Amino acid sequence: MGSRRLKIAYVLNTYPQPSQSFIRREIRALERQGVEVLRLPMRASAQALVDPGDVQEAGRCHYVLQAGAARLLWALVATALRAPHRMCCALWLVLQLALAGGGIIRPAIYLLEAAYVLGVSRRERVAHLHAHFGTNAAAVAMLCDALGGPGYSFTTHGPEEFDAPHRLALGLKLTRARFAVAVSSFGRSQLCRWAPFQAWSRIKVVHCGIEPDQFPEPGALPTGGLKLVAIGRFVEQKGQMLLIEALADAIRDVPGIHLTLVGDGEMRGALEAAIAANGLSAQVTLTGWLAEADVRAALARSHALVMPSFAEGLPMVVMEAMAAGRPVLATYVAGTPELVLPEDTGWLVPAGDVEALTNALLRLAAVPQDRLTTMGKQARERVLERHDIDIEAEKLRSHFAAAIAPRRQEPEEPSAL
């Protein structure tokens, strides 16, 4: 690379979204370290963006599908004419994706997107592609590489990738990638299941991170009854329905508990019905999606975060709660036990066990304020040590540099765009 500035393209599916602040945080940390990042999402989010950072980020994106079908098709034809041997390789990969995923239409669309990304990458002199999630975006990056574009890497979060490794052709993507990232040691173990042993050294752990300066020393805990907050998409895997059931049981013994649910999603109607059916309308508040500053304010008004998930990667909201000096009640899933230490920074219960969750809520309600404060301080120290975004972004930057360095520089071909 010589003295040229390191330039990376982030290939994403739908970005930014309210639940993806961790990607924006990572990109901006890389930029602070001198990495130039081109944002190449396939499409914009259909959800309203409430956080000013997301709104600003959307304005910096080059949306692939906004180019239109004609330009994508022309990019594919031009690539085929210029490098037919590479197109044959890419078509073979499309076939592998089709056989894994049960259809040809989606992989064919990924190929169109990849040809367009190839043209943009050459025009912008991108040295490497990085995708977030081992799903559609990783497929586009892999196909772009096959067409003669930059090498690629991708970050897996879970649980989507771990739920359907065969359908996503995760092993194929891992084998061809310069490296792959997991956000926890648990995640790395899952990737090792689908990669040949020889590729294990290319599977790295880079945590998602928080910006410490956004989390000043926490103030005093709120007074009065136990105040809990749960943050996340309203979907089955997040376990909010189980939390409502456990809360209804716990309130019979401790009437003063209040729960704030931050987020939204397809299960909102079902959650509202469950809250009403259990007579909890006065004990549960639904806020919808909040800007990051408002999420921090919601954490400040709580005694603890509850994360009753059935499946996860390593939730950002757990990191944010701990950085805000709040202990966490979560489930023994995925990477969460790597961060939440029982009776030290929080509590862990088996996923899906409503009785265990109810009992944990009752134990939490009985913990003295000074003990909660101590646990919150220990939680804050642990997350700041392990999840500082600038430290994690430096790890990622070094992996990018190492992946780019051995690649033999090929002559630039004229862009098809």
From TrEMBL:
The chain crosses the membrane at residues 90-112. It is an enzyme of class 2 (transferase). The keyword NAD does not apply. Keywords: Glycosyltransferase, Membrane, Transferase, Transmembrane, Transmembrane helix. Its EC number is 2.4.1.57. InterPro entries: Glycosyltransferase_grp1. This is GDP-mannose-dependent alpha-(1-6)-phosphatidylinositol monomannoside mannosyltransferase. It comes from Tritonibacter horizontis.
